[in-house]
């Protein structure tokens, strides 16, 4: 198996190797919105007025919680207690910024929760990533990469795409892209006029913090060779302009953020740097950049997500 395929299996580790036998579907209003690991199920069962388990083992938010506001308030109360108890490591990164929980991206939100907790419930997360690139007269085609600040609660000090950010409550995809581009890289409006949507990537990752069925909306932004991004929100250590051939090596190092690799690989494929000549399993690789998360979660609520073990 090629190193590109091995990398794709790494950021899709839960899709291939997740312990579904000890996970339970998480339902809201009768529809599956997530997957809960055994340790989270055990903690949730301490709150029978918020969560209930049926005879088949599925976990649902209590049917008495009938509105977005009620569900959001009650789950925030539970999460705040778990945070105080230091029950889950992911809650150390409490953001005071919320993700919305939906049955599908186009569906109305059912509740919101702090973004640090989304992985505890295996709810689908959405974000934006921007590939900033330039055709440098000496270096050739190159990508701007950022090194994440050591103060970041996740992946501190790791190399990442030029701009990235989660889709929080109240912000559209494009709004998020423009906001993050300004905050993280100080890109002026006249350059952002060249921002081009490039679809999305999806993956199903697992870490010690929880489960990450993520979809990232991808943008490409060609920048002039003399432009140098600089950070304004304290979340980036440095930026580095890296020739594509070096990017294709750096993504395999432990210094590169694993869950940013799908966006980078997608860029390299779309621009022809990874092709059927240097990756014979290119069709499989492309498929592993687009895990069908919405399809998996739309299965009957009596089933867990499918895994091609």
How would you describe what is shown here?
Residues 113-266 form the Nudix hydrolase domain. This is EOG090X06MA. One of its GO terms (molecular function) is 8-oxo-dGDP phosphatase activity. With 309 residues, the protein is of the alpha+beta class. It folds into two domains: 17-121, Transcription Regulator spoIIAA (2-Layer Sandwich); 125-287, Nucleoside Triphosphate Pyrophosphohydrolase (Alpha-Beta Complex), CATH 3.90.79. 27% of the residues lie in helices and 28% in strands. It has helices at 3-11, 13-17, 38-44, 68-85, 173-185, 189-192, 244-250, 261-270, 282-287, 293-297; strands spanning 23-28, 31-37, 51-53, 59-61, 98-101, 111-114, 125-136, 140-148, 159-161, 163-166, 196-207, 210-222, 236-243.
Provide the β-strand percentage band.
Answer: 25-35%
Number of strands: 13
The percent range for helix content is 25-40%
Shape: globular
Secondary structure class reads alpha+beta
User: What order do the SSEs take from the amino end to the carboxyl end, as H and E?
Assistant: HHEEHEEHEEEEEEHHEEEHHHH
User: What would you give as the CATH superfamily of the largest domain?
Assistant: Nucleoside Triphosphate Pyrophosphohydrolase
Assign the CATH topology of the largest domain.
Answer: Nucleoside Triphosphate Pyrophosphohydrolase
CATH class identity of the largest domain: Alpha Beta
Could you say how many structural domains there are in total? 2
Low-confidence stretches: 300-309
Please describe the biggest sheet, giving its number of strands, its sense, and whether it closes into a barrel.
7 strands, mixed
Mean pLDDT across every amino acid position? 94
**In angstroms, what is the radius of gyration?**
20 Å
Q: Indicate the CATH architecture of the largest domain.
A: Alpha-Beta Complex
Q: How would you name the oligomeric state of the polypeptide chains in this document? A: single chain
CA(first)-CA(last) distance: 16 Å
Q: Supply the number of helical segments.
A: 10
GO molecular function: 8-oxo-dGDP phosphatase activity
InterPro entries: DUF4743, NUDIX_hydrolase-like_dom_sf, NUDIX_hydrolase_dom
Organism: Daphnia pulex (Water flea)
Domain Nudix hydrolase: 113-266
